[in-house]
Fold this sequence. Notes:
The structure holds 2 protein chains of 2 kinds. By secondary structure, chain A is mainly α. Chain A has one domain (10-34, 52-410). Helices cover 69% and strands 0% of the residues of chain A. In chain B, strand 3 (83-84) and strand 4 (87-88) form a beta hairpin. By secondary structure, chain B is of the alpha+beta class. Chain B is rod-shaped. The chains are: A mainly alpha, B alpha+beta. The A-B interface holds A 292, 295-296, 299-302, 340-341, 423-424 and B 40-41, 54, 85-87, 97-98, 100-101.
Amino acid sequence: MNNSNYTFTSKTKNITIGLMAIGLVSIVAGFMNDKAPEAAAHAVEGATAAHGEYHAGTRMWANLLVNGWFFMGIGLLATFFMALQYVTETAWSVAVKRVFEAVSAYLPVGAVIMFLVLLAGQFQMHHLYHWMNPNVIDSTSPEYDEIIVNKGAYFGIGAGNWFFWLRTILYLVVWNMFQRGFLKRSLEQDLKGGTEIHYKQMGKSAVFLVFFAVTSSTAAWDWLMSIDVHWFSTMYGWYAFSGMFISALITIMLFVLFLKRKGYLPEVNDSHIHDLGKWVFAVSFLWSYLWFCQFMLIWYTDIPEEIIYFQDRLHNYGYMGLMWTVFFMNFLFPMILLMSRDAKRNYFLLTLVASIIFVGHWLDVFMMVMPGTVQGNWHLGLVDIGTALGFLGLLLFVINKALTKAPLMIQQHPYLDESIHHNV
Amino acid sequence: MSKVAIHAIYDDEEPLMATAATLKSQGIKVKDVFSPFPIHGIDGVIGVPRTRIAICAFIYGLTGACLATLMMWYMMVHDWPTDIGGKPSMAYYMNVPAFIPITFESTVLCAAHGMVITYYLRCWMLPGVKAKNPDPRTTDDKFLMIVETSEENKSTMEALLKNGGASEISYKLAH
């Protein structure tokens, strides 16, 4: 089997380092320029009462949370996708498995960033999570909030948010343990072959998927839904999951197309590309479906405590244009452009759609975080885009680095032969 | 010049595929192949044209979406405007989110049923119709390839098919 390695050319490396430099400059500039506005100029009656005035630096911290979540999700869902292939004993994907593994290599990096952003909140360096403010449980304080007190047990409020931190550390550590295990055993199998390691991967993947099924939802509640702490939605976990899933699939597909263009992965044929295209198409629908379900049910019942989420995102702070743009671009582009069989085998169309919805899903996370944190003080300015580019550079750097570490084509796997002869 | 149809039975799909590829390279058209399971890649080798059922599905789906929209507009807006949950249906666009699930379901229903019915009609697989399968063993473990040829070329063709691994050869009158 072809055992050539990928070379991380200095040109590609310089691009990723350049992007990271842009990100660093944006973060520093953002923190230096972000001051509290004189008055809450954009505040509108009916806005979430849970949040007080605007604090300096909130916009940058919110940006770090957006990027922390979005990019970690790519690494995490690549791990999930790998586990899914093992459990279902999928044959076609073996030829591109190394790309899944490389994309999942971002998970440890993303987890550290996510952890640091949350830790900064715990030490009151930012106020993205209103329930982390110790005053909300002090009945003498004007900030006392009975709803948060009633939900307090879920976070461990009053005792250092211990239950929140227990969960956070559990998710991050266990996800990373599984991710490392999958990669380690995959390299072992390259050398040893046989089915023993394959079955071990299957068993571990099944355990991971059960753990992931619960924690992907609870992590979304803990880290994103708790921004709008008075509000709750039972669809939120799935909605966040599908957003991460599609982002990870786009990244995987773009890397496969990139490698094919560079002349790597000669064993990967049009049928593999077609199958990746089908996944992107299908999961785009899953995301649109869940987005719409959450919206429609809340819109239909129109209960004040629920509708506030969409009031904030549509009417209160001027997000309406962005909100609908995000939904329609992430739904319509893949639906119209990727519907036909030929489109799913066309590199140009796939790259075009994937690039558009990559931005679309980043904006989706932006819409999840911003209305609850910076409210009306939002801009989609240079620092926001620069920060995102910086994270993108980091993601590309880590994935490229990971690709060089092992032969690009799996050397031994029970389904390798079947995968190479994949034909749909 | 009369034509004959040669029915060649194979025990495996691989020799059949290889023979079909040889025939194709010599410019001989394979009329049909019967197999107990779908053989990946055979469509290209024996020159089966791409199915057009996807186009039908699109049209049926569009029909379903239009029918559902028309139905809901007539029932909920035009004939008897209703006020559900404080959302009076004065115009269709006002309550569009509520109409989406039904539009979606109707699209799927019409597309799916339309495709199945089209398939049955096109293949003429209807209750009481006799199966067209020339050899019932192809539903179990045999593979059948049909090639049409002229009386003169019969023996050359037979040798070619035998060399490719055919275990049985029989002749039928060509249609």
